[in-house]
Amino acid sequence: IQRTFSIIKPDATKRNLTGKIVAKFEEAGLRVVASKRIQLTLAQAQAFYGVHKDRPFFGELCEYMISEPVVVQVLEGENAIAKNREVMGATNPADAAEGTIRKEFALSVGENSVHGSDAPETAAEEIAFFFSGIELVG
Ligand code: GTP
Ligand code: MG
User: Fold this and answer.
1) CA 69 to CA 14: how far, in whole Å?
2) Could you give the CA distance from residue 74 to residue 84 in angstroms, rounded to a whole number?
3) Which of 91, 100, 103 has the most ligand 1 atoms within 8 A of CB, as the residue to mutate?
4) Can you tell me whether residue 51 is helix, strand or coil?
5) 39: how many CB neighbours lie within 10 A of its CB?
6) What does each of the 138 residues of the chain score in pLDDT, given as a tens digit?
7) Ligand 1 mean position, distance from CA 4 (Å)
8) Angle value at C-alpha 95, between 94 and 96, nearest 5 degrees
9) Which protein residue has the closest C-alpha to ligand 1 atom 15?
10) ipTM beyond 0.90?
11) Residue 115 falls in the annotated catalytic set
12) For 49, 92, 100, 105, which has the most beta carbons within 10 A of its beta carbon?
């Protein structure tokens, strides 16, 4: 059993799509084991996406991530990291497979509705960035 970290991003929370997105995770066999709705600060968004700090879209990405509240979650299941990325679909909705979250809901490559960790190391870091041990119920 594995855990991954997910963000339901501002474009999705703004359009009241949280429940529809969580349903996609649950249908794929992922269980929500921690969840909260928060407003990121600019410093938090910049730190979270620090790996992209030299990319041309970094400023735009961080401003977008603070434009509305987000829902941060820990998802658990067999191969949760890969399974979550499969359900999310490709970064750019134009390339995303039918039935994926980004295909159904994303507006653009930037406003793409969800984030999911890409490896076990980043999953552990990202979970620890947003959740304390006491918030993680098995
Ligand atoms: P995350 O799960 O959010 O990390 O998405 P990803 O792993 O599929 O994509 P990546 O890590 O390469 O990019 C992180 C995020 O930056 C994406 O999800 C987009 O929101 C944003 N992003 C990536 N490429 C572009 C771009 O060309 N323009 C803009 N505006 N945003 C981008
Ligand atoms: Mg990524």
Assistant:
1) 8
2) 11
3) 91
4) helix
5) 11
6) 999 999 999 999 999 999 999 999 999 999 999 999 999 999 999 999 999 999 999 999 999 999 999 999 999 999 999 999 999 999 999 999 999 999 999 999 999 999 999 999 999 999 999 999 888 876
7) 17
8) 95
9) 110
10) yes
11) yes
12) 105
* Catalytic choice (24, 61, 115, 123): 115
Angle at 9 between CA 83 and CA 127, to 5 degrees: 60
Structure tokens at 77: 């299941």
- Whole-angstrom Cα distance, residue 85 to residue 32? 15
Contact 109, 67 (CB under 8 A): no
Rounded to whole angstroms, the Cα distance separating 127 from 129 reads 5
